[in-house]
Amino acid sequence: MASSLRRPWSRDGKAESGSWWCTSSLLVLVLVGFLLQWNELLYRTAPAQLKHLSSSSDFGILGVPWCRSRNDSKVSWTRGDLIQGLQEFAPIYDMRPIKNNRFGMGFDHSFGLWFMARWIQPEILIESGAFKGHSTWILRQAMPTKPIISITPRHPEKYLQKGPAYVDSNCKYLAGKSFIDFGNVKWQDLMEEYGIKDYSKVFVFFDDHQNELRRFQQARHAGFQHLVFEDNYDTGTGDHYSLRQICDQRLVQGGGHSCSKDSKEALLRAARRKNWEKAVDIDELCGPGGAWWGVRGQMRDNFNHSFVHITQEEHLENFKQIESSLEVYWELPPIAAPSLTHQRRYDPARATDPIITDNESKLFVQLGLSSLDKDLFNGYTQMVYLKVSQ
Ligand SMILES: C[S@@+](CC[C@H](N)C(=O)[O-])C[C@H]1O[C@@H](n2cnc3c(N)ncnc32)[C@H](O)[C@@H]1O
């Protein structure tokens, strides 16, 4: 009896040391097995296994909420339309005057902007945030004869002195000394100047890194219905409050986050952070008091030159305001799977399924996309189209 009570680590426990080793080895095996399985789950999207990207997910294993469209309304274009669009757009993109558009749009969003502007067939196009004029050029390719209004503090012609830029001859520039913020433009007067009475014929594109809640309110107040936001940053990232952030709410499917260090989300985020530049771990996601909304509880604005802390209740109110006047919300999918583009920035688990999937490498080549510089696929930030109800 006495010996059976003796612990295996006791000096004279020789008789039991055999069974102790057996038990320990078994435990180690179980532990290793568990870790391997967990590792498999965490690294499902590791670059070495790019084929296993979350292509069948709705919005990834971490869950990302969509802004809810009224009555479940959808956009009128299909994946087939997008693929056909890509076929037309690839050679157009090749002709772009600004080959190096660092700090501006890359391939995915250039295509999205061109496609949506052309699909909607507006009578006039407005852009806020032009930089060297790449997006103006894209709008011009979509609508060759329609007027454009471009609002941007520095006139794109200034960039011409240093290198490639684009200045459009049928564009009214509210730039340089004539710069006036989108929210201060007398839109009714300006639209009258162009003979625009039907505001459903106006296409508005924002790439100015301003709080998207404010821009949404201003555009709605003006009566505009078709809005595209270039940088629709994910929760915990970016330099301004975005639609994606606003719709990340606990009451929405896939919305809300956990700031607990022991949570499954914390582990998943830590692992994904290693593989995807723009993925954020729990420390980056969460601010004081477990504030996960916006960026660490901040509503950021103007390239993060300013921000305010908001409560979760205020965040929810912002969402309700947007949702009450949102007819359609549609995020442009990434053009192609990371196994084809080799992009390493956005986490595919936080994006919708790409237009060209892992298994469609032939199509990727046929469309001429395989010859594009890989950096051009790095700028995807969930460009979004909104149809606003009036
Ligand atoms: C990311 S860049 C735009 C890139 C451009 N759309 C492209 O595709 O190349 C952002 C631009 O917003 C401009 N900007 C800053 N504040 C602005 C404001 N209040 N209204 C409009 N544009 C603004 C910046 O000067 C800059 O040119």
TrEMBL record:
Keywords on record: Membrane, Transmembrane, Transmembrane helix
Record-annotated membrane-spanning stretches: 20-38
Top-level division of the source organism's lineage: Eukaryota
Gene Ontology cellular-component terms listed: endomembrane system
PANTHER family per UniProt: DNA-DIRECTED RNA POLYMERASE SUBUNIT BETA
Stated name of the protein: Uncharacterized protein
